[in-house]
Amino acid sequence: MALVMTKDEPTITAAEWQARVDLAAAHRLAVTHGFSEGIFNHLTLSVPGKSDRYYQIPFGLHWSEVNASCFMEVGWDGQVLAGEGEVEQSAYCIHAPIHRLVPEHACVLHTHQPYASALARLEEQEILAIGQTEIGFLDKIAYDDTYTGPALDPSEGERLAGIIGPDKKVLFMANHGVAVCGGSVAEAYDLLYYLERAAQVQLYAMWTGRKLRQVKPEVVSHTLAQYQQVWPNYGNKPSYQHHFDALKRILDRTEPDYAD
Question: Quick one: pLDDT at residue 197?
Fold first, then answer.
């Protein structure tokens, strides 16, 4: 795929270029962490400073090929407003409505990552209060218990947007996968990463066949209250930004072309 929107393009602002770099990093990291699924699934981000479009990769790219220059800017109607390539239909039908209807969710990451998707295939797909990481998600998750088939109409994205709303950041999609949202790529990817860890540990515990150790309700409430307090901002940055910056430093050493 030819590079079509470089950092030297006069119409691209510094904020837009940084957004492209961060979203490209998320695609590369998803491959590293085993979250990708061939050329499918979708990681998108609202274009900074614009209220009518979002970034999406051209259909057919493997996530290991994604770099900052390749993103298209796609409008709410599915038209390519900048860049080149084909708009994958299910990406548009899921992501455009969420970005449009819930603008707080600047970044929307939809994956079929294996452990979270395995939970989504259970009759009871909930994250359980059996550990510290799991508890941290309890007030962030919405559950969609109705699988309707592939998302090939924007009405499905509108339905999903109504379920997750502005107050939740994680959507478990029954028989399907997950969508994780955040105000930035760093926030959303950090949640995606730890969600998969929580799902993995829960499944490992379930696979033993032994009785799960549930955390007492009063301790769950206390722990959630602690999580909801202002977490220390080391160096005036939230922990998710420190995490994402560290992950990008790994890419800078191993796959620096993500930022091209």
Answer: 98
